[in-house]
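User: Assemble these into one structure.

Assistant: Restating your components, then the assembled model:
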Amino acid sequence: MNKEPQLFPKMNHNEMSIEESLRTNWQFSIEVLNGGREDSAGIRLLEARAWEIACEALKPRNIHLPAPPPSYDERTLQQAFEMLKAPHKLRPLLQWFLDQIRNCRYMLQKDILEFTRHWEETMDVRHFRELFNVLSEWFSVWGKEVLAFKKYDLDGHFAFQRAFRASLLSILPPSFSSAFTALLKFTLVDSESFTPPASQSLSRSPLLFEQINTFGVSEDFENIITNVLYEEIRVRVMDTCPGEWEESMLPGLREWFTQKALPWIAGMYASGAPNEERLRAVLGPVTQKFDYHLCKMLCDLRTNEIFDIIVNYPNSMSAVLDLKECLSRTDQRAKFVQALRKFNTRRLLHHGAETSNILEQYINTIRCLRLLDPAGVLLFSVAEPIRRYLRERPDTIRCIVSNLATDDGILGLSDEKDSGITPIRDALESADDYSDPNWHPEPNDAEPGFRTSRPTDIISILVSIYDSRDLFIKELQILLGRRLLAITDGDYYDEMRRLEQLKLRFGDTQLQVCEVMMKDILNSVRTREGIRELGETPLHPTVISHLFWPEQAKTSLVLPLEMKVLQDDFATKYSDRNPGKYLKWIPNLGTVELKLELADRTVAAKVTPLQAAVIHHFSNQDTWTPQELADKLDIAEALSITSALQAWENLGVLEEMPDGSYFLLETAREGRGAKRYNKMVLIAPETVGEVEAAETAEREQTERMRVHWQFIKGMLNSFGKLTLEEIHGKLRFFAPDYDHTQEHLAIFMQSALKEGLVEVHDGVWRAVR
Amino acid sequence: MAPILPSLLAASRNGKSSDHLRIRGATGSITCICRLSNELMTLMMSNSPGISAFPKSDSNLFDWVGTIEGAPGTVYENLSFKISIHFPSDYPYVAPVLRFESPCFHPNVDLHGNICLDILKDKWSAVYSVHTILLSLQSLLGEPNNDSPLNADAAELWGNEQEFKARLMSYYRPI
């Protein structure tokens, strides 16, 4: 350039403002700079201008202020965009816009803080809901500008959404999430129970979820949303299910979930799904997740209730079936076992529970868990502590046996009738059948001792609590003996039927003794008839073989002479009929039907032999003291005499005198018993000996002592004389189950001494011959 | 299971008398021990009047002592005799050896107390037990087998009850 360029054209100050002139001058300068060509710096200056215009138009505005008039008309704006397009300046422009969004987030923050604070103060979710409308407005106002980029093949929407999300998340106050949780809960619950008209529009959750989706924050809130739903499922389960065992709850819960909760989350996850099928496909995994949670909740609940569920079985069968499905879905078996074991220890296996209750619960547990887990793994793990505990209880066998031998006992034999009575299988004898083509390994959570091939019927399980079956057989004999002797009407059909059933279970050989007992009873009937043919007798004896019957409680009761004559007569006839067999009477068993002929009345009664013997003595002498009677009848304990006397006193036959003796009322006393009773009175026979009432443990103890006494007697007889130490040493060595101390033995020997069975001189014991 | 074996084992397990097992091993098989302890139990529980027997010492089940009383109605009534029983280690396949330890005037018992009883000799069978042997011995007292006497004097005198009783009592030593 050789000549001085004219930098500043002459200005007309009157026509143009300073700005205008500057601009003109600027334009001029650019043209000079560009030297008439359309590029380079001059262009750049134009671009700068276009940038400025675009920025002005795009700048995010505060929606709370009235919208300012557009700074430029559409055309100018478009020209600016056109200009920026060529040098690829649109992308930086978009970037600038997004930066602006971030910079302007303080405007949002103000709104959010305000709404959140309002919620904190009032807890009004409906108001809080407005926040999303406002946010929506911000979003749409700001996002509108991005549309301008679309014309130039530049989709800014996604970038904008991201920028908006980033801004939004960066300014959320801490309490926002709780507010949002409350809102979600409200929308979820609202649709079913709480629908005030005013809230209807705002609580429509699809819109809310749409908004959240629009902001692109649904993923960020997913945790909150699912937590809300989890919580809601928990509440639902806790509200509807506890204690409801008689119907299946799972289908109802699932129905509720499909009807109410599923549409709710559908808004969140699948708002854009075009049709039902697609919707289901999208929601599939989500539904599975929540269904798992549903099952887990129900499973937890039922696990906590399991003890009572078992108590109420079979009424609670539906709950068990629910639990079965839940367990199979959630794999909480270990937890279940743990819980049930804990409950059992705390609520069942302690001294406060009766053995029959424990047994009943055990049986119910067996039934329940078999339903729950046919393979029996659960049962095995749960049952072991119960079985161990039962084994320690002294009266378990008695309890099982007495239930075994009744039809309506807790064992409910009837409900197994369908499957037929199966012989009892021994837990030990079943080994794996290696040639079984259908063999399966034990389930993988089975404990080491578990066997699939264990016996499964309840009686076998109960019997297998003990290693040996002999105890049961012994107890069965005792029970059968007691029951047979208690039957007076000659109807033995029930007992025979029961015995047959038991034989199917235990096998003929085991119950041979019981068979003999039954035969004895039936033979007795024939014997009685046979002897009656020889001559009338008022006796109806039951003849039992002492080798086969359990020891009968014997007391030394001296029966009246008349009675003795009858007995001897019967015994002789019996021995004539059965050569080589002799009768030995057990005077304290049986019942006596007698008629008392008093001066003014007749009293008929059915009483025990002792009571009969007592009243018999009053026929010769009308006043007796209990002690006199005890001596006369050779009864050691005066207590049973007194109770017999009182029984007669209750009938108005005797009266107690002030000095403790009893007096026979030949004529009925005014207002006394006789009037209260009818002619035929039945005094409930005393329970056939208190011995029966005694616990099995005591009986075992006495039985053991009896065995020990036999040993002591045997050794004293063999050696002639022994010291206490020697007896103790020999007992410890040879007698079974001898675990007493020498002091204990000394006490025992002293009592034997008192009974005159042994004698002692200078510490040397001898048997009395 | 024999009731005594557990107590034997238990005793040795407790370390109280660890030599029992050794003794058992030295003198007899387990079946024999089982059998003998079973028989002891049966005998103790049998409650038969007039017979009794018991192992002599704690450590040896094979030597027993016992007493036998004469059955009522026989010449031996109210008399009791001391006996000893020795079981061989292959009992019950071989009969035990029984002897009267106190003098007994009897056709089938010699002056040393040896007994002639068929079931202890050629008629022995493993089904017999201490209990049955003692019962047989008791009945032998009242019903001697005079065809094969060990004590000829006694066999001759048997028919004469009075004289027999006198001789018997001259020998008899109450225990």
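Chain A has a mean pLDDT of 76.
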